[in-house]
Amino acid sequence: MGKNMKWLLIALGVLIVLFGINKIQQNQLTSKSDTVFDIDRDDVFQINIIQGNDSISLSFDGESWAIDGNDTLQVKSNTMDRFFETVINKFNVGDSTGTHLVLKDYNSEPIANAVVGRSNAEWSSSNIRFGEETDVYQTSENITFQLNTAPTYWGEVPPPPEPDTTSVDSL
User: Fold this and answer.
1) Which residues 6+ apart lie within 8 Å of 143 measured at CB?
2) Which of 1, 21, 59, 129 would you label with 68, given CA atoms 20 to 30 Å apart?
3) Taking the domains of the chain in order of start, what are their residue ranges?
4) DSSP 90-152
5) CA atoms of 33 and 74, how far apart (whole Å)
6) Residue 159 banded pLDDT, cuts 50, 70, 90
7) With 50 as the cut, is the pLDDT of residue 90 above it?
């Protein structure tokens, strides 16, 4: 009985060592950063999102964001905040299957671009490829839903103007 126990403890020790080595190797494959682009939010003046034949462009005039070509909707500030928090803070990312994201500066010069796709292996994350690189990375959360080309995702109908209560009826 003592001899069998000795072999079991040796086998358990070997398994623990192998597990530790595997864990160290896996940690080397994990990104130490949670930001997608290494740029400052204040440098972004235009966002272009292209998904197949659909696209949307948002422009910043220094004070507020606007949906290009749509003057009936105002941009939702919480959607923009969430976009910048998530996106600025090898799999379905081909040029034809992924969603293209281009961020431009004040002079309409591209400062960052990426192709984002859904992860087939993990629903709660996205896959992303930067520029013309061939490497594909997996994000820690799913950002594909934020790359929506529908104007109503980014904007909302502004509330009607407040009635002027200072005017006096002449009747």
Assistant:
1) 36, 86, 87, 116, 126, 128
2) 129
3) 41-156
4) --S-STTTSEEEEEE-TTS-EEEEEEEEE-SS-TT-EEEEETT----EE-SS--GGGS---HH
5) 33
6) confident
7) no
What is the spatial distance between Cα 78 and Cα 17, in angstroms, rounded to a whole number?
48
Spatial separation of the C-alpha atoms in residues 105 and 153, rounded to whole Å:
23
Q: Measure the CA–CA gap between 152 and 155, rounded to whole angstroms.
A: 5
Say if pTM beats, i.e. exceeds, 0.85: no
Structure tokens at 65: 């964001």
Q: Which two tokens stand for residue 130?
A: 């930067």
